[in-house]
Design goal:
about 450 residues; mainly beta; Elongation Factor Tu (Ef-tu), domain 3; Pectate Lyase C-like; twelve-stranded parallel beta sheet; elongated
């Protein structure tokens, strides 16, 4: 996928008066600057450089910052030197008329909050590629981040960390030391990837990552959140997908790791460690529908409850509770299904109430005082007599091959067969899948740990 790229860095020449991208100059500053440019009232889409440098090195799709009396306007370069006059460029939209103004072309911005409060669907190149703000992992960003604009179904907004090269998976560190949310995400079609958000030095009661949207969707991928006293991720919006995220609670944290207050959210491949009251939670607040999906998540935190679903229609697939808990999986809702899950080290493995109409199927229990309590039924339960995992002390939750442990869970999950293929599916119970799949059909699943 192609993007229109912008940058936030700690470079010595990065500034919120730069064009933002897509190209960076010396020390992440602009590639071109002039302090003697003019936009006339008669032609507000043309900027004239009166310095004599004739926009040397500037290219179509570069972005400029045009500063009029302290009001920043960002525009895309559409053409250079119309009518063979190299002192002129045309821009993507009208700018405020003025003379002897500073124009910076390209160069990184200096703060994430500025990028979040500035970026919108208008920041696209001539090919209409969606804007991506690349945040460099080159030092702590001590700031509160709030988004002022949302994207659209055709132009999403992306904010992604990197270390050296865009897309390399680097995760910049955002730390806010005053009471309040570190990152407040209240716009739809805004996607976050590869960030570290810290609330351990925040003495307030709000959350390091607080989400609230009422329409559209957002994807949160590879984001790590830590907190001493607060809920790490609070999701009060609908249609928000969390993938490969992790949460850490400090020794005194009795709040929640990840909570979804509204329906239509998904927790996929997420991980929790440290200490919490409840780790993964669904609690309906009247927004959207009630159901969420929790898929292939792991709780390794010491807690009261690992997985808590409080309203109807939730689906929990292939999840693991390992951290010491009173309740590994606690259900207080109707029509909630647990499939291929593993409960360990708890007073109660799977606990509901007499009226929840909830079932667990192909789930396993290890080292729990009570395996299944007040469920409608447990279908094909698996009783483990040994630790099923390879090396939990080092976070390795792949299945071992020990009899009574991991050997009982390999290839025994559901579905075991699919009507459109030959042979068996060999889906494992738990998160990570061992090598398997049918030997008689190339269409069978072959998940690899």
């Amino acid at each position: 996928m192609a993007y229109t790229d912008f940058f936030v860095t700690h470079g010595s020449s990065a500034a919120n008066t730069n064009g933002g991208g897509p190209r960076l100059g010396t020390n992440d500053g602009p590639i071109y600057t002039t302090s003697n440019s003019t936009v006339s009232a008669e032609d507000t889409v043309t900027i004239v450089d009166n310095s004599g440098n004739n926009w040397s090195g500037v290219a179509v799709d570069d972005w400029i910052c045009w500063d009029t009396a302290g009001v920043k306007e960002f525009r895309r370069v559409d053409t250079i030197a119309p009518d063979e006059d190299a002192t002129k460029i045309t821009i993507s939209a009208a700018a405020t008329a003025g003379s002897s103004k500073t124009t910076n072309v390209g160069g990184a911005w200096a703060t994430i909050d500025f990028a979040a409060s500035t970026m919108s669907t208008t920041f696209i190149n001539n090919a209409s590629d969606p804007p991506r703000t690349n945040i460099k992992n080159d030092g702590n960003y001590t700031e509160k981040v709030t988004f002022d604009y949302g994207g659209s179904s055709t132009i999403n907004l992306f904010f992604e960390g990197y270390t050296t090269t865009v897309g390399d998976g680097g995760k910049p560190y955002i730390n806010y030391t005053v009471s309040g949310n570190t990152l407040y995400h209240n716009k739809y079609y805004v996607n976050l990837k590869n960030l570290r958000i810290n609330g351990t030095t925040n003495s307030g009661t709000l959350n390091p990552l607080n989400m609230y949207t009422t329409s559209g969707y957002s994807q949160i991928v590879g984001v790590e959140v830590s907190a001493t006293y607060m809920t790490c991720i609070s999701c009060r919006g609908i249609h928000i997908f969390f993938e490969n995220c992790s949460v850490y609670g400090g020794p005194s944290n009795t709040r929640t790791g990840m909570i979804a207050y509204a329906g239509g959210c998904c927790f996929i491949g997420c991980y929790a460690y440290g200490h919490f009251g409840t780790v993964f939670e669904n609690y309906y607040n009247g927004v959207g529908n009630t159901s969420i999906i929790i898929d292939r998540c792991i709780n390794a935190a010491t807690c009261t409850t690992g997985f808590y679903v409080a309203y109807a229609g939730n689906k929990v697939f292939n999840c693991i509770n390992w951290g010491t808990a009173t309740n590994a999986f606690l259900i207080d809702s109707y029509h909630t299904h647990f499939i291929n899950c593993i409960a360990c080290n708890a007073t109660y493995g799977f606990k509901g109430s007499a009226t929840t109409q909830t079932f667990a199927r192909k789930c396993a229990v290890y080292n729990c005082d009570n395996d299944y309590t007040d469920l409608m039924t447990a279908i094909d339960p698996i009783a483990l007599s040994a630790n099923p995992f390879t090396d939990t002390a080092n976070g390795d939750f792949t299945l071992n091959s020990e009899a009574g442990g991991g050997a009982l869970l390999k290839g025994t999950g559901i579905p075991t067969t699919l009507p459109i293929i030959e042979g068996t599916n060999n889906l494992d119970v738990g998160v990570f899948q061992s090598a398997g799949g049918s030997t008689t059909s190339e269409h069978a699943y072959t998940f690899i740990a």
